[in-house]
Fold this sequence. Notes:
Layout: E1 4-13, E2 17-27, E3 32-36, H1 43-51, E4 59-68, E5 71-72, H2 78-84, E6 86-89, H3 101-108, H4 115-128, H5 130-134, H6 145-157, E7 163-167, H7 175-192, E8 195-200, H8 203-206, E9 212-217, E10 220-226, H9 227-233
Parallel strand pairs: 3-8, 3-9, 6-7, 7-8
Antiparallel strand pairs: 1-2, 1-4, 4-5, 9-10
Helix pairs in contact: 3-6
Bound molecules: adenosine-5'-diphosphate (ADP) (2 copies).
Amino acid sequence: QPILSMNSVEVLYDNVMLAIKGVSVQVPKGEMIALLGSNGAGKSTTLKAISGLLKAERGRVSRGEIKFEGTDMTGMLAQNRVDMGICHVIEGRRVFEHLTPDENLTAAAPTGMSRSVLSAEKEKIYAYFPRLAERRNSLSGYLSGGEQQMLAIGRALVTQPKLLMLDEPSLGLAPFLVAEIFGILKKINEEEGMSVLLVEQNALAALEIVSEGYLIENGRVVMNGTAEALKSNS
Ligand code: ADP
Ligand code: ADP
């Protein structure tokens, strides 16, 4: 059974704008899957349908079904989805700039997480992201774009997600940093068994780390296959 199963999902914004037109995506447990495609294709909308963030943008799923670990997500609030283990790192690396990385991680921890578990989680995150560890007590507003992206991912990891969804983490970063961050994501996926759904316009970089990809164009999946197959097609 896939951890995430999305079947023929349509999303309407403002009751008129059909942004995705019957998208089906499966994420097998423990796998890393990419949604590829150009700007405006419907990739972010697909992630928002899964995390429940559509409502704030006057959007809604108007058809189809989304199941997480077999549970139908229809009508479920975004916070409940987080509690179930779905974490969505939205585009634009949102972090609290007036707080340090350490304080950002604390602020992102689920309510009720004990101090000892939180501090163990932080150390685990810093071990994955040594650059972040070095800056843990600097103000986050002064971190580089790459370090802020690492912190945005760290804020997601501290919630101990089962499915980590990332929207364009490579945006605006130097190629060496993209390679570094993607390498770390792959390592987390392998070592923690965490399932990952990665949205990327940078198909070449994404296809280096995922097992499978979906190409989305104009609100529809136009191609789905293994990373190898998609690489030879692009
Ligand atoms: P991508 O992530 O692939 O760039 P999006 O999912 O952001 O694409 O957008 C898909 C389509 O939906 C685009 O035509 C976009 O203009 C439209 N869209 C996205 N968000 C909204 C919104 N809140 N209201 C109306 N239209 C939207
Ligand atoms: P366990 O179920 O072995 O007690 P945890 O409760 O520590 O594992 O974490 C739950 C899930 O969240 C794990 O499956 C793991 O994939 C993921 N996870 C938790 N913390 C981290 C982290 N710091 N980095 C990466 N993945 C993490």
